[in-house]
């Protein structure tokens, strides 16, 4: 089920909320927790029930391994070492992820390398598997290192499946979630949380439905269908995607956090105006923040530790390696590996720059950072390396510069070799709105308060309420859209 | 407690919102914007205008029917046709293909070619001639149909020497004539647009959303509730005598090339809805396109079908539903009229 | 027993800043270079320097020198 679906907003969410608070009202906390777990499982299996056993199996497996690790020191007969159990547990998780996510990529590369014709397995990626795998690996690590004290299957299962974060994060840590589920007793309905949660949810919905989906309409043809792109088409396609991704992903995270608030559950914040960043280190403190925290804690630190000494060079190598792995985690494909590698390299450069105490005008720093991020997302979005190269070729002007024919009168442009056409943005299904909206959205993302800050300033007065209602209805109406195009064209 | 009040008011508003959407959907928009109830009707859908709907379903009862290029299996053909959406049964409903009237009336085998995305009709026919396809099919006639709106495309210089193998031409991307309306939920922005357009149309000739215009006719020209309303898309004729002359020259050149192979060219420009009905408007807002008037006197070495003249005769007689009230396309009545008058020598 | 004086050189080395003087209440906000990444460098340097091992899951929360000192001493006890 998607947050931006009418069945979620008008049926699922109200039902779960009402049931939850009724059960809490009757002091049935175990029932309330079970109700949330049940709802989360329904949410997960809405489109495809086939993977329900998979996620349940994964939860039971990890809970059991975690339990053995926690109680290991008290066991009388120790058949295998604690480390062996831990390694088996983590490996099983990684193998599961590899099977579903990377096997076809691996087979494809083997075929390309050795000229073999092994058939692809066309495995469908189960929803949320990347997320529920890494949160559970973190749980195993903590269990192994003695940080897990509380043991409760219901809380654990709820921590993994809680529907606001299940499909796309924010990435949760059991330490911050399981105690919250344990203290549901105190969590009777809180109207302020409910109101703020609704506000954040509808802001997120607006970002997704009104902003992100509009940019998707230009990015998708630019990346997927256009055989080649001219200069402006390519820049607007990449910019559209960069804006789409931010408004989509951060909108989703807003909705997730907002839903959490409605249930009086605090989820961590995932975005903090990333496009305001004036450096790539800064960017990763603002973009997908829960992932950054996960990567620093569970990837960077162990890599660093394994080197056995701390030098500047070693920490740079660890950064690069961690980002490379994070790139692979994002998706099975060379484009993602390159994306991770690029960010790793950029972080390395940024750290060297900082170490040397060099400086740069703020605007220039922002410009370089944003353009780097924008270019890196071309790899992130493109379906193949050729697809990415197509966009880069256009951005570099290989296919020429075409502008709207009304600019033909500007002779300077003509002398510079600019072409003119009425259909200058056809490759991305664009029109004048494309660059105007892209510019507006960019200025908005760079200068305005983000949704979290906006909600913090929310007051219970009619002025704010009117704005909220407008945003809410605008978003709701556009979940399902009709357009005034000729379906049967001349 | 203020928060409680706001949450409850918001919840109440959401309930009303859902109910209102449901009412508008069931009463009007489901009919207007989905094809759940009938085929065609672009203008009522794009303008969210109830009252001009002509419910219809695709149905053909003419004994002889045309074939498409996909169905063609090498049989002898009398006439090859090519054209825009008017040649693809654009209006939908009863006997939507004019080609079926030709096939039945003149007892001909009619083959309709595809409309390719980036190739004009003259070039397409020239390509099929140059690669030997027309010699294999051996038709007596080639008919090019094109809406008045698409004139400029046929007035460009044509490279008659261009040769492409049959497979290449047939592999060209098709012009996307028919696409289906997306699946929409009963809560959608169409309901909102419907409300605003209904308001706008009270005071203007256009809605707030979409390009559809509405004008008053001097009589009931359509057999619908609002029979005296003309729904149309505004159309600015961006051509003059030079373009029409160039088009005529292109047609003449093609006619010469075809006649060398024993084929006669027929050109049927299709009159635009607004152009056709303009004489019967109470307050004609836009100038009338002079395309037909410019083309008529020119010397032609092809057969010319004057749809404007033929269909205006019908309107003058008070015939209803020549075009669909809710669409940019003509109905079966227009096809029947045209091909009861035209003779193919 | 580890003392503040013993932590100081490690901090100076990791953050590349000879002017650092630690107190129990020093936090990440007081040292410009102390962010989540250099924090990891610091913690691993402490592990190596005092031959102890932290749990990964507790690293992010150690942002105050006093707590850090207490945890190290607990691990060494």
Descriptive labels:
heterotrimer, A: 490 residues, mainly alpha, 2 domains, two-stranded parallel ribbon, 20 helices, 1% strand, globular, C: 77 residues, Non-ribosomal Peptide Synthetase Peptidyl Carrier Protein, Chain A, 4 helices, 56% helix, 0% strand
Write a compact overview of the structure shown.
The complex is a heterotrimer of chains A (490), B (345) and C (77). In chain A, 69% of the residues lie in helices and 1% in strands.
**Structure class of chain C:** mainly alpha
Which residues of chain C sit in consecutive blocks of at least 5 with pLDDT less than 50?
none
Distance between the termini of chain B: 87 Å
Q: Which CATH C-level class of chain C is it?
A: Mainly Alpha
Radius of gyration of chain B: 23 Å
- DSSP helix count of chain C? 4
Oligomer: heterotrimer
- Number of E-type strands of chain C: 0
What is the CATH third-level topology name of chain C? Non-ribosomal Peptide Synthetase Peptidyl Carrier Protein, Chain A
Strands of the largest sheet of chain B, in order across it?
1-3-2-4-7-8
Describe what you observe in this structure.
The complex is a heterotrimer of chains A (490), B (345) and C (77). Chain A contains 20 helices and 2 strands. Chain A has helices at 6-25, 29-45, 52-71, 82-114, 129-144, 153-161, 163-166, 174-182, 191-225, 231-262, 280-286, 289-307, 312-330, 334-355, 362-381, 385-395, 411-415, 432-447, 451-456, 462-477; strands spanning 402-404, 419-421. In chain A, helix 17 links the parallel strand 1 and strand 2. Chain A is globular and about 85 Å long. Chain A starts with 5 loop residues before the first helix and ends in a 13-residue tail after the last helix. The relative contact order of chain A is 0.10. Chain B has 345 residues and is α/β, with parallel strands linked by helices. In chain B, the strands form 2 sheets. In chain B, strands 1-3-2-4-7-8 form a 6-stranded parallel beta sheet, sandwiched between helices. A two-stranded antiparallel sheet of chain B has the order 5-6. Helices cover 39% and strands 10% of the residues of chain B. Chain B has helices spanning 2-33, 42-47, 98-105, 121-130, 133-137, 151-155, 166-170, 189-203, 241-259, 273-277, 291-295, 307-316, 332-341, and strands at residues 67-68, 79-83, 110-112, 141-147, 213-216, 229-232, 264-270, 303-304. Helices cover 56% and strands 0% of the residues of chain C. The mean pLDDT of chain C is 85. Chain A binds chain C through residues 138, 141-142, 145-147, 173, 175, 281, 285, 292-293, 296-298, 300-302, 304-305, 308-310, 315, 319, 354-355, and chain C through 14, 16, 33, 35-37, 39-41, 43-45, 47-48, 55-60.
């Amino acid at each position: 089920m998607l947050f931006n679906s009418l069945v979620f907003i008008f049926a699922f969410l109200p039902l779960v909320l009402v049931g939850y608070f009724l059960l809490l009202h009757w002091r049935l906390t175990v029932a309330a927790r079970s109700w949330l777990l049940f709802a989360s499982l329904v949410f997960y299996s809405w489109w495809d029930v086939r993977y329900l056993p998979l996620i349940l199996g994964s939860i039971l497996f990890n809970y059991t391994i975690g339990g053995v690790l926690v109680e290991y020191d008290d066991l009388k007969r120790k058949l295998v070492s604690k480390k062996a159990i831990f390694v088996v547990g983590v490996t099983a998780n990684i193998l599961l992820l590899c099977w579903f996510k990377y096997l076809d990529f691996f087979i494809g590369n083997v075929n390309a390398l050795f000229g073999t014709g092994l058939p692809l397995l066309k495995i469908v990626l189960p929803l949320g598997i990347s997320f529920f795998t890494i949160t559970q690996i973190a749980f195993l690590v903590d269990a192994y290192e003695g940080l897990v004290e509380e043991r409760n299957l219901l809380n654990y299962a709820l921590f993994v499946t809680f529907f606001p974060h299940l499909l796309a994060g924010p990435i949760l840590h059991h330490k911050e979630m399981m105690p919250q589920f344990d203290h549901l007793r105190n969590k009777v309905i809180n109207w302020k949380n409910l109101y703020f949660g609704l506000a954040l949810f509808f802001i997120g919905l607006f970002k997704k439905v009104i902003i992100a989906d509009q940019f998707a309409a230009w990015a998708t043809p630019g990346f997927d269908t256009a055989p080649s792109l001219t200069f402006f088409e390519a820049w607007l396609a990449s910019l559209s995607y960069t804006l789409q991704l931010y408004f989509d992903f951060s909108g989703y995270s807003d909705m997730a956090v907002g839903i959490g608030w409605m249930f009086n559950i605090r989820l961590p914040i995932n975005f903090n105006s990333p496009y305001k960043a004036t450096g790539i280190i800064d960017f990763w403190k603002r973009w997908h923040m829960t992932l950054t925290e996960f990567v620093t804690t569970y990837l960077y630190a162990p890599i660093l530790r394994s080197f056995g000494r701390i030098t500047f060079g070693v920490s740079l190598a660890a950064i690069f390696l961690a980002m490379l792995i994070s790139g692979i985690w994002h998706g099975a494909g060379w484009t993602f590996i390159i994306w991770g590698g690029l960010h790793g390299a950029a972080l390395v450069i940024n750290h060297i720059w900082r170490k040397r105490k060099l400086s740069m005008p703020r605007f220039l720093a922002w410009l370089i950072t944003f353009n780097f991020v924008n270019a890196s997302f071309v790899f992130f979005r493109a379906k193949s390396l050729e697809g990415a190269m197509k966009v880069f070729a256009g951005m570099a002007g290989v296919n020429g510069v075409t502008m709207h024919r009304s600019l033909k009168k500007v002779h300077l442009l003509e002398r510079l070799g600019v072409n003119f056409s009425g259909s200058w943005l056809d490759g991305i299904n664009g029109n004048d709105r494309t660059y105007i909206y892209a510019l507006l959205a960019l200025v908005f993302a760079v200068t305005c308060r983000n949704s979290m800050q906006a909600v913090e300033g929310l007051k219970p007065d009619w002025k704010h309420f009117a704005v909220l209602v407008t945003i809410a209805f605008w978003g709701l109406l556009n979940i399902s859209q009709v357009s005034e195009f000729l379906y049967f064209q001349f | 407690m203020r928060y409680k009040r706001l949450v409850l008011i918001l919840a109440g508003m959401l309930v009303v919102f859902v109910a209102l959407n449901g009412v508008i959907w069931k009463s009007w928009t489901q009919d207007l914007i989905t094809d759940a109830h009938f085929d065609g009707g672009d203008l009522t859908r794009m303008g969210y205008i109830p009252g001009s709907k002509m419910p219809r379903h695709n149905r053909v009862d003419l004994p002889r029917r045309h074939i498409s290029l996909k169905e063609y299996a090498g049989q002898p053909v009398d006439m090859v046709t090519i054209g825009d959406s008017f040649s693809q049964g654009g209006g939908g409903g009863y006997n939507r293909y004019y080609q079926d009237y030709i096939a039945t009336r003149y007892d001909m085998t009619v083959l309709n070619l595809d409309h390719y995305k980036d190739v004009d009709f003259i070039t397409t026919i020239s390509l099929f001639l140059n690669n030997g396809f027309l010699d294999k099919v051996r038709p007596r006639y080639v008919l090019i149909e094109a809406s008045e709106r698409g004139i400029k495309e046929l007035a460009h210089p044509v490279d008659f020497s261009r040769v492409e193998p049959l497979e290449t031409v047939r592999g060209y991307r098709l012009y996307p004539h028919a696409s289906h309306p997306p699946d929409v939920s009963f809560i959608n922005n169409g309901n909102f647009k419907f409300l605003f357009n209904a308001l706008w149309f009270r005071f203007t000739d256009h809605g707030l959303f979409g390009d559809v215009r509405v004008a008053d006719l001097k009589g009931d020209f359509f057999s619908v509730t609002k029979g005296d309303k003309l729904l149309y898309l505004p159309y600015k004729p961006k051509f003059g005598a030079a373009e029409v002359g160039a088009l005529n020259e292109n047609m003449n050149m093609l006619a010469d090339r075809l006649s060398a192979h024993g084929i006669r060219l027929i050109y049927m420009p299709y009159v635009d809805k607004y152009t056709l009905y303009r004489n019967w408007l109470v307050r004609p807002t836009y100038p009338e396109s002079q395309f037909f008037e410019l083309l008529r006197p020119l010397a032609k070495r092809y057969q010319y079908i004057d749809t404007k003249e033929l269909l205006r005769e019908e309107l003058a007689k008070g015939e209803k539903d020549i075009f669909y009230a809710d669409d940019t396309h003509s109905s079966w009545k227009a096809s029947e009229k045209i091909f009861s008058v035209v003779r193919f020598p | 027993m580890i003392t503040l004086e013993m932590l100081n050189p490690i901090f100076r080395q990791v953050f590349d800043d000879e002017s650092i003087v630690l107190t129990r209440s020093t936090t990440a906000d007081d040292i410009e270079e102390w962010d989540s990444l250099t924090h990891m460098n610091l913690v691993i340097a402490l592990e190596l320097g005092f031959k102890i091992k932290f749990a990964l899951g507790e690293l992010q929360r150690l942002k105050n020198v006093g707590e850090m000192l207490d945890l190290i001493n607990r691990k060494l006890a």
